Amino acid sequence: MSDTTALPAPSGPYLGKGLLPADFYAYAEQLSAAEREKIESIREFLRTQAAPIVDDYWARAEFPFQLVEGFGKLGLMDWADPDSTQSQPSNLLAGFVALEFGHADASLATFFGAHAGLAIGTILACGSDEQKRRWLPAMSRLEKVGAFALTEPHGGSDVAGGLKTTARRDGDGWILDGAKRWIGNATFADLVVVWARDVETDRVLGFVVEKDTPGFTATKIEHKMALRIVQNADIVLDGCRVPETNRLQNANTFKDTAQILRKTRSGVAWQAVGVMFAAYEIALQYAKEREQFGRPIGSFQLVQDLLVKMLGNATASCGMVTRLARLQDAGVFRDEQSALAKAYCTVRMRESVGWARELLAGNGIVLDYKVGRFVADAEALYSYEGTREIQTLIVGRAVTGGLSAFVG
């Protein structure tokens, strides 16, 4: 007999308390009451503290540092402190956190993902107990901000085999030489996880380079059209010396790097869902208020068609990442499942924000109406953490029983 009580029935027309209008199938009601309360506190902070200022900071390509302390007080990463009594949140809750950040602003979602998912995630997975105790307490409270440096000026999708940054053992330390590009948070980060190839063993190793280390420079990348709030940097490592105690003791091959990316890739899919939710909600409100030919444009068939297509994309994508989170929580998810979610959701996001821009017509390119920001930022989410093409080849290899179409 089927269990008809596994999920609560949505209340009202289709929305439960505190759910976003785009959550048409009420996926968030799968969260516990305590988890929903946490999500609502995050949403309230983003609504009252972030939303009023992000357009201005996006236009100026500057970071709103005044928000960092508030992010820390939300307690989103308290569990990462080795002395914390809190348990790690479910992947479902973590996913909805990423959705909420994406819904508010894709740049803030990227800042949080780089710090919590990539930097903290790497130290948790690859650091020794001593290293975790040294760095994670302050990072969990956002008293120290982290960054993750893997991509290089001439190496993105092929970085697994083409990593050029080198690490050379020198006495009780290591000398790092090379360059990194597109490193979010790096202009102001206190700790940067740097991946480099050991010149003796050819293995990929992980290091934590602390702020103001001689030989480390980070220069802001200017003139971006997307994620303008994110302070991406070009990094140069020129004889940068780090002690052996800053080498991540459990990061010894690129497989260790890949395990971090496998986890964060799904986070980007969740961010994409948040962006879709926001674009749909803005378009829906606009359609109800904007009048042409003497009535709201929401009463026209072609406008309703755009709204329904956006809602369908958002709903299908939310269903995919929700199921993926359940698989992650059960410990049975696979690389190709994260890859499919990242590829599918970002494609649907790119499509949906375009439809929102179309619905707003000329107003869709004016920052005051916000949709233009989501359109631009979607281009970055579409590409980072693995392009659609690379994710496609990962999934293709899996579904064909291991037939690889990768070249090289």
Characteristic key phrases:
408 residues, Butyryl-Coa Dehydrogenase, subunit A, domain 1, Butyryl-CoA Dehydrogenase, subunit A, domain 2, Butyryl-CoA Dehydrogenase, subunit A, domain 3, 7-stranded mixed beta sheet, 50% helix, globular
Descriptive account of the structure:
- With 408 residues, the protein is α+β, with helices and mostly antiparallel strands.
- The chain has 3 domains: 114 residues, Acyl-CoA dehydrogenase/oxidase, N-terminal domain (Butyryl-Coa Dehydrogenase, subunit A, domain 1), CATH 1.10.540; 108 residues, Butyryl-CoA Dehydrogenase, subunit A, domain 2; 145 residues, Butyryl-CoA Dehydrogenase, subunit A, domain 3, CATH 1.20.140.10.
- 50% of the residues lie in helices and 13% in strands.
- It has 11 helices and 9 strands.
- The strands form 2 sheets. Strands 1, 2, 3, 4, 5, 6 and 7 form a 7-stranded mixed beta sheet that branches. A two-stranded antiparallel ribbon has the order 8-9.
- Strand 8 and strand 9 form a beta hairpin.
- Helix 1 packs parallel to helix 3 and helix 9 crosses helix 11.
- It is globular and about 80 Å long.
Query: What is the gyration radius calculated from CA atoms?
Result: 22 Å
Q: Quickly give the CATH architecture of the largest domain.
A: Up-down Bundle
The first-level CATH class of the largest domain is given as Mainly Alpha
| Model regions low in confidence, pLDDT < 50 over at least 5 residues | 1-16
In whole angstroms, the N-to-C terminal distance is: 52 Å
Secondary-structure class: alpha+beta
CATH-derived topology of the largest domain = Butyryl-CoA Dehydrogenase, subunit A, domain 3
Could you say which overall geometry the principal axes of the C-alpha atoms support?
globular
Beta strands, count: 9
